[in-house]
Amino acid sequence: MKRGKKWPMLLLSLMLTASLAACGGKSSTQDAQTTPEKTTDTTTEQTDNTNKDSDEKVELTFWSLGTTNYEELGKEYTKEHPNVTIKFQNTSDQTAHHNNLTTALSAGSGAPDIFMLEIGFMERFITAEDKFYNLNDLGAKDIAGNYLDWKWKQGSSKDGSFQIGLPTDIGPTVVYYRTDLAEKAGLPTDPDAFGKEIDTWDKFAAVAKQFKEKTGKPFADLTDLVYNGVRDQSDGEIYFSKEDGSFIGDKNPQVKKAYDFTVKGIQEGWIGNTLLWSPEWGQATNDGGFEVMLGPAWMAGNIKSNGPDSSGKWRITQLPEGAGNWGGSFLTLPKQGKHPKEAYAFISWLDDKENQLESFKSKGLMPSIPALYTDEAFTGFKDDFFGGQATAVEYGKAAQRVKPVYYGPLHDQTDTFFKDALKNVLEKKADPAKEWDAAVEKAKTLAARS
User: Fold this and answer.
1) DSSP 3-state assignment of 426?
2) Global pTM?
3) SS3 helix, strand, coil % of the chain, rounded to 5?
4) Does the pLDDT at position 44 exceed 70?
């Protein structure tokens, strides 16, 4: 999501991360990309451990991230548990969200009872076991089989004894596109037919150029999402080696392909000049300012929020040449929280099969409970916003095309260097080769200092 832009803030983040690591427990870094294994179709009932008749007043603080329906579900929960109050603090800025927790844990105060941890930041915190409650001690072992095995292991220590969080969503990436604009440009509007028109990146670029020539509008919304779409099809690693943590981004052909492809879109004029999460981007989403958005399943919630007037005009198809996975989070309990049993009771309810289905229907959060993937309530769900399309089917296809990748603890900061380079090419007409070299040099310097 939004990235920090200044070196002082970056250095502060690194200092805080180092401080946190120093005060953490034993090392338990789990490869974020464990190979998926077959899971059982039987979902264990998740038990509510809170005493509904308890008179003790409990206030839980919850730092949530991005667009979810958790606040609405929280209201439903507190109606059934009148002794519990839940105070939400939501942000769309990933870096600030996680830096705030780093600061609180390092200071020894200020952390919430419940923290939503995004997978890209997992390795910053999973090594600090003494700063989080072990959910296995609160009953998580009994429900582990409900979730995708690889997703569960992303939040586990190597030996499985420590579980930092319950898995929420996953983020298989798809192509969101506008049927009204496609029709005006002479493109098919049916998802399968539209997908065939762009099923390689070369075909995507050709269609994009023709679309811009016919309509005068950009085909893709902005540089960041185009770059992400190609970058996340990396095979195993993106910027860092999962064996020794060294920077390998300049040797990863998929990173260079993503960069060069985005530069091509900039130079040919079919990528829009807006910033991710900006009001201008939201307005363009609503008004038909572009044809496609490359994004994960959870991006549907942003499209709905930003584009209420565009309901019925969107459809979903597959990304060219595969899929990526952007994001997916975990619900964790920092040890500064005073009510771990009540907090666990709430998150295990919030993250059960029924509520993951509701989160999908409401905000497009792709479930991490595989029993839902063959559930008619999931596969048969038709989203009126997307013209009555069975969107779950497309997300399911994308999920099966994902190659899990390793991020490394410096992924977010490193990614900023390449996104900023592309921004300079777009806004300052900077030389793409020089910008690439500068981004690589910054990434190597960052890795050497860490």
Assistant:
1) helix
2) 0.75
3) 50, 15, 35
4) no
